[in-house]
Write a structure and sequence with these properties.
By secondary structure, the protein is of the alpha/beta class. The chain has two domains: about 300 residues, Rossmann fold (3-Layer(aba) Sandwich), CATH 3.40.50.720; about 120 residues, 2-Layer Sandwich (Dihydrodipicolinate Reductase, domain 2), CATH 3.30.360.10. The protein is built from 16 helices and 13 strands. β7, α10 and β8 form a beta-alpha-beta unit. The chain is globular and about 65 Å long. The chain binds nicotinamide-adenine-dinucleotide (NAD). Nicotinamide-adenine-dinucleotide binds next to α1, β4, α12 and α15.
Length: about 450
């Protein structure tokens, strides 16, 4: 390994997952199976990808762990919170993502992951009715109870470091409110005043994590850490934050495919995306207020890749108020498919002299199978970032996220273009490894 200033990944890494549902249990089961040599962590960049370092005659392609010190799968300890009390084995069986034969070999370990009581407010996810919930009178009490959970977990499991990952349900849409969400002092005051309208339970998890010295990752589209008050807290505590919304199926395809249209200077008059999904996530998203959070996140992807103001001839047609071209996203709850989501994309493009053409994409994916490696990579890379002394929004993690965080108060734009995101990821790893960032073609 080259000279770098990253602290070594010594000791146990506690990964505390908010939500013990389909994504969380698929992630945990895969890690536990992989470290027994019973499966392969397919889809994980930290386990498979190789990055070029050096140039010309000196160039080498190395896995991430040979460039920077990444925690080993063997050092991970899982913890969890959920509204339902079932342990991770029961929850994995309930989710029906994985076959029994792929869960049984690690049953003992999964059974030991028993969710702690959730910081929950039913108004934020009306379709959930579990009772494994903390009895807190105010949002501030939630913060204090969660901080205690983190401290106790760290001590009981002898962890050197903790990362907190939100893989719980999508909360209802909380629009950013300047009076509450812009300054840390206002946010804290609202928590103490129990302002339930502006303080989502997820914000209590994030606040607790950062103040306990743990990076926080938002895997749902919730606005939680995507507010200036949380950026301020991340600066103050010197902790990394990342979000929002795992980029798994349809949006991964969108952020990888739309550059074809943009680079080739073809026109776009509309992009219609629809999905059917039958798991508990789909059930929660069937509620319009929860879907709104997801819709905002899914719609944002094209905005910075195909820009109407840059190319009005190509992307300025149509009447969509946000994007000029029509961009619609729908999710329909359809129980027979469970976690096996089917997505359809109809893309209306136009070419030379305005002649129309169509592209159809039909992706029969498995939601949690695509999300699990992202959970692993986001946790390992956030832990790495913390040891490298990086704090605040980790833009190099945009690659893994549907609606990447950026400083919208300074007019900064999100980077949604998959290949630009990959360049940012590789360069961050190079820099943390003590090498120079570059944009050379591999
Ligand atoms: N699978 C994907 O492809 C994908 C992609 C992007 C984002 N996501 C997001 O990941 C999240 C998890 O998805 P899933 O399929 O595992 O859903 P799931 O419904 O199976 O699991 C979510 C769990 O979170 C629990 N929960 C809800 N509120 C909580 C709280 N305040 N505290 C603790 N636990 C709470 C629920 O009880 C449930 O068990 C969702 O928000 C989803 O939108 C998933």
């Amino acid at each position: 390994m080259n000279q770098n200033n990253v602290k070594p990944a010594e000791g146990k890494l506690g990964i505390m997952v908010v939500g013990c549902g389909a994504v969380a249990t698929t992630f945990m089961t895969g890690v536990l199976m992989a470290r027994k040599g019973l499966t392969k962590p397919v889809g994980s960049m930290t386990q498979y990808d190789k990055i070029r370092i050096g140039k010309g005659e000196n160039k080498k392609y190395l896995p991430y762990s040979e460039i920077v010190p990444i925690a080993k799968l063997d050092d991970i300890v899982f913890g969890s919170w959920d509204v339902y009390p079932q342990n991770a084995y029961q929850a994995a069986m309930y989710a029906e993502v994985l076959k029994e034969k792929d869960i049984e070999p690690v049953r003992d370990e999964l059974e030991k992951i028993v969710p702690m009581k959730a910081a929950f407010d039913k108004n934020y996810a009306k379709r959930l009715d579990g009772d494994n919930v903390k009895d807190c009178k105010t949002r501030w009490e939630m913060v204090e109870a969660l901080r205690e959970d983190i401290r106790n977990f760290k001590k009981a499991n002898n962890c050197a470091r903790i990362v907190v990952l939100w893989a719980a349900s999508t909360e209802i849409y909380v629009p950013v409110c300047e009076e509450v969400h812009y300054k840390l002092s206002d946010l804290e005051a609202a928590m103490k005043a129990d302002d339930r309208e502006h303080i989502a339970p997820s914000m209590c998890y994030a606040y607790a994590a950062l103040t306990e010295g743990a990076p926080f990752i938002m895997g749902a589209p919730n606005t939680t850490v995507d507010i200036p008050a949380m950026w301020e807290l991340a600066e103050k505590t010197k902790m990394p934050i990342a979000g929002k919304d795992f980029k798994t199926g349809q949006t991964l395809v969108k952020s990888g495919f739309s550059p074809i249209i943009g680079t080739r200077c073809l026109g776009l008059s509309g992009w219609f995306s629809t999905n059917i999904l039958g798991n508990r996530d789909g059930l929660v998203l069937d509620e319009p207020a929860n879907f709104r959070t997801k819709e905002v996140s899914k719609l944002s992807t094209l905005e910075t890749i195909l820009k109407p103001d840059w190319q009005p001839d190509l992307y300025g047609h149509g009447n969509d108020e946000d994007t000029q071209y029509y961009h619609k996203v729908r999710i329909n709850y359809y129980p027979p498919r469970n976690d096996n989501k089917e997505g359809w994309d109809n893309i209306d493009i136009f070419g030379w002299m305005g002649y129309p053409m169509q592209i159809k994409i039909n992706f029969l994916c498995r939601d949690s199978i695509l999300a699990a490696p992202l959970c692993l990579d986001l946790c390992l890379l956030s832990d790495l970032a913390a040891r490298a002394g990086r704090y605040g929004t980790q833009r190099f993690l945009s690659f893994f996220l549907k609606s990447p965080m950026h400083d919208y108060t300074q007019g900064e734009e999100a980077v949604n273009h998959l290949y630009q995101q990959y360049t940012m990821l590789k360069n961050a790893i190079r820099e943390m490894g003590g090498y120079e960032a570059d944009e050379e073609i591999d």
